[in-house]
Amino acid sequence: MVDWERVERLRSKGWDWVSIAEDSRADFTPPEGTDDAGKALKALYYSRKSRGGGGTKKKEVAKETPKATFKKLLIPVGLMIIIIGAIWFVFALEVSLVSYWVPAFPWVMIVIIAGAIVMGAGLVLRTAYLSDVWKMPVAVGIVIGLVLSGSLAFIAYSSGAPILNPMYTESSGHGWSGAHNQMWKSNGLPVLFYYGSLACPYCSASSWAVYKALTDFGTFSTVTYSSSSSSDVYPNTPEVDLTSIAYTSNAISWDGKEGSNNQVTSEPGLNIYEQAYVNYYNSCANCGIPFYVVGGIYIEQGSLVDPSLFHGSGEYSQPIYTASQVMGVVSGSTSNPTLYADIVTNGAYYLEAYLYEADIKAGVTPPSTVASNSAVMAIVHTIT
């Protein structure tokens, strides 16, 4: 005789009719020739209900683990993981303090995919029907997702991470974007944060534009040269080692961080403020180096200078291989101003325009040489 008390108990736990019918403690034997035991048990259950519930078999109820518990948890656990990941994903996209700890890409997406796989496995094994078990995992997932996101945002804020806002496209072009953030300053000066790797040929090529811009805003006392990886595209592109320079300025605060291995692209160590900008604006959905932040409000991803120009591409039949040759071009001591303009000036002037604008917004007087440069000021006038 069917143990109807156990049937009721399993139904209250979210078991589907097939699983209940297969449970040995329910003591249900389907009629001969029945293909669907769950359907047969369900029909018998409601038939009994309509007759007033007679014939109940009383049994001592013992605490036990339901049969195939792991399988039966696949769907609710998978659904709960998806909900947690989805909430975290939304918060990480919109709240920089959450993305400081776990960026929206790729880790949260991996969590969501993992949840989908777990839930899919449960559906394939037909261990439970989603319609019977969705309420509890959704509720638990929402609570856990909100608690995790809120807790990590609070921890990040308490640790000193900045509150950042989504980027918007600047009208000046050249890939620059803006963000309505609080000004990032050091000693009262706007910070120029540079993030790259010595091994990266795009970083190597861009280092000359950064060097040119820094020259126009301050003074170098030490300059060291290096080159990009010999096994990457545009191998051995000459560069200024931006992390080893000695630099002073009354207009900007220089903060350069590069991976120090010039053969393998690597990430430099960052403080919490720097890491917050990298995580929020340069996550692996659209990640790229080099990466620049001017005053915390202007952002650029990608090369300021085309590295192919250092390898004899296009109109230049003779490549420039040595750092000293490139320095001659950057310093203007060569007899080829067109080459100088093509290689360095365009990218440098855009960087200088945003440095100039950050100075103005921070109440700092930009260098007069920059303010009198018509090419730079033409870009400044396009910045929104």
Describe this structure in words.
- With 384 residues, this protein is α+β, with helices and mostly antiparallel strands.
- The protein has 3 domains: 4-67, no CATH class; 71-159, no CATH class; 167-380, no CATH class.
- The protein is built from 15 helices and 11 strands.
- It has helices spanning 4-12, 17-22, 37-50, 69-72, 74-94, 96-99, 104-125, 130-133, 135-159, 201-217, 272-281, 323-331, 337-362, 368-371, 374-380; strands spanning 167-169, 177-179, 185-186, 189-197, 219-222, 225-227, 238-240, 246-248, 253-259, 291-294, 298-301.
- Strands 1, 2, 3, 4, 9, 10 and 11 form a 7-stranded mixed beta sheet that branches. Strands 5-8 form a two-stranded antiparallel sheet.
- The N and C termini lie far apart (79 Å).
- Residues 54-68 have low confidence and may be disordered.
The general outline is: elongated
The mean pLDDT is 85
State the distance separating the first and last CA atoms: 79 Å
Helix content estimate: 40-55%
Poorly predicted parts: 54-68
How many structural domains can be distinguished in the coordinates? 3
Total beta strand runs: 11
Helix tally? 15
Strand content: 5-15%
Structural class: alpha+beta
Roughly how many Å is the radius of gyration?
32 Å
**Helix-strand pattern:** HHHHHHHHHEEEEHEEEEEHEEHHHH
Major sheet details: 7 strands, mixed
